[in-house]
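Postdoc handover notes: sequence design on the structure in folder B. Input tokens:
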């Protein structure tokens, strides 16, 4: 057994075991605290709502176990199981052009993986989400969303894959640097185009028509020195009763988007506080910092791939005999998540730090009590667990746990 084979298997089994163990800790912690609402929320969240959130979280964790096992099995099947070699042979019967063979191979791996995971996605939507009263989508809408996603994948993915594989074949040993520049340009273009060209394919957006609320929010934007291309309400209720708000786009295409379910659940002061939190991410330059971090990580990843493509053991150690640029790219996409799972706590830590900073900004611009009350309503309406396991949360959660976040804001209120 080659060294890379052993390293890959140890990382795969170790990562899977770690994630399953963390899930067991989370389940046990939630069950242990299901019988009583935490003191910080006792006067605002009824016990039945707390227990619903606990049961909803437990159902998601059970499904996640199957997702983890399936992902590990798929990674093994494609690599040591000979799946990439098998698909490469089938593609070779369709075309002799190395470029198109590589595009078909990588797309095949991505699309087959999506097809394999489809039953779990269906169960999550029409099983768990429906059981707990969140799902509002229909089978037809679900199918249309998947078809639209497939069409976008082909329209955007084929040119991008073709360009990267062409660079791998034609740009010499430094192809990865040109590929990185292409990737960053594609990312920025997609971010710019998303609010105008892509998001409307899936949802309806209309300008915020509540005059009093709009004037209140515009005053906040002016006070914070933020310019956007408008505030819009999205028909999130057409698919789910979960509520949220977000910024999208950049430059002249920046938009503020509220789910209609969020506006239905919060009062004007709470909506303003939630918007102030989102503004905090921009004012503290979190978007720029995360974009720079993503750029560095993608540069390092492509540099690593550039080196690995010239190493015979990279292919043989992962069960691939048909060496090609397409096989190298497919292998890298499959194997990278096996190793990055161990650094996910670092990314989560950075994200939680940004959330605290955004909360601090919101507390400076609005009454922190409004943000606290708005968050508690969102925890209740979205059935977010109030009692996560600290270690599980540190590993997975991009936002601080509910008790920690509310305690942080409460300390701001007292000062």
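Designed sequence:
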């Amino acid at each position: 057994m080659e060294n890379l084979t052993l390293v890959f298997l140890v990382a795969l089994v170790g990562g899977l075991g770690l994630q399953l163990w963390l899930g067991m800790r989370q389940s046990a912690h939630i069950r242990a605290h299901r019988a009583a609402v935490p003191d910080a929320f006792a006067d605002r969240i009824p016990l039945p709502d707390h227990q619903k959130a606990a049961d909803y979280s437990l159902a998601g964790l059970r499904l996640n176990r199957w997702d983890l096992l399936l992902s590990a099995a798929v990674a093994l099947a494609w690599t040591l199981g000979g799946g990439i070699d098998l698909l490469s042979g089938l593609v070779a019967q369709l075309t002799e052009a190395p470029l198109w063979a590589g595009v078909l191979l990588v797309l095949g791996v991505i699309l087959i993986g999506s097809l394999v995971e489809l039953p779990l996605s269906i169960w999550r939507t029409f099983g768990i989400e429906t059981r707990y009263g969140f799902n509002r989508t229909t089978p037809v809408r679900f199918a249309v969303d998947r078809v639209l996603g497939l069409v976008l994948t082909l329209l955007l993915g084929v040119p991008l894959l073709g360009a990267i594989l062409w660079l791998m074949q034609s740009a010499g040993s430094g192809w990865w640097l040109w590929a990185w520049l292409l990737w960053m340009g594609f990312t920025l273009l997609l971010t710019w185009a998303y609010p105008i060209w892509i998001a409307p394919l899936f949802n309806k957006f209309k300008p915020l028509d509540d005059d009093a609320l709009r004037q209140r929010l515009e005053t906040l934007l002016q006070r914070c020195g933020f310019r956007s291309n408008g505030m819009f309400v999205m028909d999130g209720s057409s698919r789910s009763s979960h509520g949220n708000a977000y910024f999208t786009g950049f430059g002249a295409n920046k938009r503020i988007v509220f789910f209609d379910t969020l506006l239905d659940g919060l009062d004007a002061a709470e909506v303003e506080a939630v918007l102030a939190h989102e503004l905090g991410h921009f004012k503290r330059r979190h978007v720029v910092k995360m974009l720079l971090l993503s750029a560095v990580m993608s540069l390092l990843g492509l540099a690593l791939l550039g080196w690995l493509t010239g190493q015979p053991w990279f292919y043989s150690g992962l069960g691939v005999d048909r060496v090609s640029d397409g096989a190298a790219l497919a292998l890298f996409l499959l194997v990278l998540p096996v190793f990055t799972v161990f650094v996910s706590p670092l990314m989560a830590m950075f994200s939680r730090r940004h959330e605290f900073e955004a909360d601090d900004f919101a507390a400076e611009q609005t009454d922190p009590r409004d943000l606290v009350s708005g968050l508690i309503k969102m925890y209740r309406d979205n059935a977010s667990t109030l009692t996560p396991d600290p270690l599980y949360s540190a590993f997975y959660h991009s936002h601080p746990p509910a008790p920690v976040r509310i305690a942080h804001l409460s300390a701001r209120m007292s000062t």
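Context for whoever picks this up: The chain has 16 helices and four strands. Don't rerun without checking with the PI first.
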